[in-house]
């Protein structure tokens, strides 16, 4: 597989896709049927469909009955914690193993020529980005995610919230399924932007940005306060009519789905001619440049507020101008 058919590699060895990033085609005129079809396809495949499938398996086989859920008890809380931890271990672990330990595709489609394991740094526990990320994921990330899940299911079992059923509102449920990733991204933008304000950045968000060259275990490597904010998008289900299956889906999308953006590779090589798009580049650029792409491009807020970076030299120039204006303003303030 020749990755130079799809991108270019600079002297250092950093690979860049040839096609610039674009915000969702729905916001770009004139509308192109082919682009919209490709977007809708990518909207569901592979991630959203996989997370909905997993949530359905959880709901049918790995969630206790209503009577059990109505009372908090260590048994079922630990079951949920265990299944979430196991899913993360398998999913993040498989990506890490394939791409970073066994290096199955070498540096093909890899944005940054360096490997995180070569960057021993004091900002990480045990000087390792991977170990630091795994510790933060399992000690606070997965427990906080599970706490939201427990609370939502407990509310459901006790009749707290606006719950409904698929048979009562089929059209609404399809719309809700379409809307969940959009809500998730909108909420993420709204918490992420303030996390870049100096005090919050220094005390909270810098933990996540220690991974300048992100890899799978960077995904949930966050300060616990950021994890609390990050998973709070699931509280939506206490406000809008939904079924608990959506809350499970949403939390998988947030928890397991956080890997999208932190894979470090543009495509996963699955066979001689088979490639899987990772949808990672947008958030990779956020880790690289910090002050761009607070969202993921499905919700066009970065475009509206002038912080969108599409990976091109033109976007580099716009960012440089923005940073210069900021430096000048700070200097003028003395
Ligand atoms: Zn990130
Ligand atoms: Zn950030």
Give the % helix. 40-55%
Q: Got a strand count?
A: 4
Give the percentage of residues in beta strands: under 5%
- Class per helix and strand makeup: mainly alpha
Distance between the termini: 54 Å
Evaluate the radius of gyration.
21 Å
User: What is the average of the pLDDT values?
Assistant: 93
Number of distinct helices: 12
The geometry reads as globular
The major beta sheet can be summarized as: 2 strands, antiparallel
* Integer tally of domains: 1
Q: What is bound: which ligands?
A: zinc ion
What sequence of helices (H) and strands (E) makes up the elements? EEHHHHHHHHHEEHHH
Query: Residue ranges: pLDDT <50 for 5 or more in a row?
Result: none
Topology of this protein?
Blueprint: E1 7-9, E2 15-17, H1 33-44, H2 47-61, H3 66-69, H4 74-101, H5 129-157, H6 170-195, H7 198-209, H8 224-231, H9 244-255, E3 267-269, E4 275-277, H10 281-289, H11 301-305, H12 313-333
Antiparallel strand pairs: 1-2, 3-4
Helix pairs in contact: 2-9, 4-5, 5-8, 5-9, 6-9
Residues 208, 214, 261-262, 283, 287 line the site of one zinc ion.
Organism: Gemmobacter lanyuensis
Keywords: Membrane, Transmembrane, Transmembrane helix
GO biological process, one term: lipid biosynthetic process
């Amino acid at each position: 597989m020749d990755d130079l058919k799809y991108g270019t590699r600079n002297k250092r060895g950093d690979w860049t896709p040839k096609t610039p990033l674009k915000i969702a085609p729905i916001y770009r005129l004139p509308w192109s049927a082919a682009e919209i079809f490709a977007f809708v396809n990518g909207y569901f495949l592979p991630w959203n469909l996989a997370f909905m499938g997993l949530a359905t398996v959880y709901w049918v086989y790995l969630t206790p009955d209503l009577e059990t859920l109505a009372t908090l008890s260590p048994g079922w809380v630990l079951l949920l914690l265990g299944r979430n931890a196991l899913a993360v271990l398998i999913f993040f672990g498989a990506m890490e193993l394939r791409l970073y330990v066994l290096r199955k595709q070498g540096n093909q489609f890899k944005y940054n020529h360096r490997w995180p394991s070569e960057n021993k740094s004091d900002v990480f526990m045990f000087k390792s980005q991977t170990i630091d990320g795994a510790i933060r994921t399992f000690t606070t990330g997965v427990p906080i995610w599970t706490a939201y899940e427990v609370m939502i299911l407990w509310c459901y079992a006790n009749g707290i919230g606006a719950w409904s059923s698929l048979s009562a509102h089929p059209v609404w449920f399809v719309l809700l399924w379409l809307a969940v990733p959009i809500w998730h991204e909108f909420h993420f933008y709204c918490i992420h932007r303030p996390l870049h304000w100096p005090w919050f950045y220094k005390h909270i968000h810098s933990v996540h940005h220690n991974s300048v060259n992100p890899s799978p275990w960077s995904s949930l490597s966050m300060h616990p306060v950021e994890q609390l904010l990050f998973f709070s998008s699931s509280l939506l289900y206490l406000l809008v009519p939904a079924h608990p299956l959506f809350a499970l889906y949403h939390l998988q999308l947030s928890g397991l789905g956080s890997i999208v953006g932190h894979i470090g590779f543009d495509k996963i090589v699955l066979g001689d001619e088979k490639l899987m798009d990772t949808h990672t580049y947008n958030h990779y650029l956020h880790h690289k440049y910090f002050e761009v792409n607070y969202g993921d491009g499905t919700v066009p807020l970065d475009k509206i507020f002038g912080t969108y970076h599409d990976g091109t030299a033109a976007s580099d120039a716009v960012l440089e101008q923005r940073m210069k204006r900021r430096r000048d303003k700070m200097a003028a303030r003395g």
